[in-house]
């Protein structure tokens, strides 16, 4: 494992980074550096990789027969810059890189650093919510259990 200080995040191919290593990188990077990374050209690549992995890290046995559309709004300041949707149904999780126009059961809005911390297991949803770094619209019970639907590696 490379030392975080030795990594060139602007050229790192996040598609080659294993989930556990990604969690370690997010854990060790200062929030300011994560914010810089997610304000630059790597933003879309990082977000696309995270959402692509949601499909493979999904635990259908935990989600059961749930059918839910979750809209993720990843902000850059107050601007809802990126919108993704995950649809959990029929034992699978599918991802869309845009707003489908359908009514989601849950909308989660947060800045990119908090999103990366959440999906890498370095922050809890309730902690982000109670510190107002995560906004929730819709099914609060679904929001509370959402991280259990995925095999999130810990750093």
Description:
InterPro entries: SCP2_sterol-bd_dom (IPR003033), SCP2_sterol-bd_dom_sf (IPR036527). Residues 68-144 form the SCP2 domain. This is SCP2 sterol-binding domain-containing protein. The protein is an alpha+beta fold. It has helices at residues 19-28, 31-37, 43-57, 60-63, 112-119, 125-130, 140-145, and strands at 68-76, 79-89, 92-96, 106-111, 134-138. Strands 3-2-1-4-5 form a 5-stranded mixed beta sheet. It has a single domain, classed as Nonspecific Lipid-transfer Protein, Chain A. The chain is built from 7 helices and 5 strands. The longest helix is centred in the first third of the chain and has 15 residues, at 43-57. The mean pLDDT is 90.
Describe the secondary-structure layout.
Blueprint: H1 19-28, H2 31-37, H3 43-57, H4 60-63, E1 68-76, E2 79-89, E3 92-96, E4 106-111, H5 112-119, H6 125-130, E5 134-138, H7 140-145
Parallel strand pairs: 1-4
Antiparallel strand pairs: 1-2, 2-3, 4-5
- Strand order within the widest beta sheet: 3-2-1-4-5
Beta-strand percentage range: 15-25%
User: What is the overall shape?
Assistant: globular
- The CATH fourth-level homologous superfamily: SCP2 sterol-binding domain
Largest sheet entry: 5 strands, mixed
Number of strands: 5
Give the SSE string: HHHHEEEEHHEH
Question: What oligomeric state is this?
Answer: single chain
The CATH class turns out to be Alpha Beta
CATH topology, what is it called?
Answer: Nonspecific Lipid-transfer Protein, Chain A
- Domain unit count: 1
Tell me the Rg in angstroms: 15 Å
Domain SCP2: 68-144
Organism: Streptomyces fildesensis
Protein name: SCP2 sterol-binding domain-containing protein
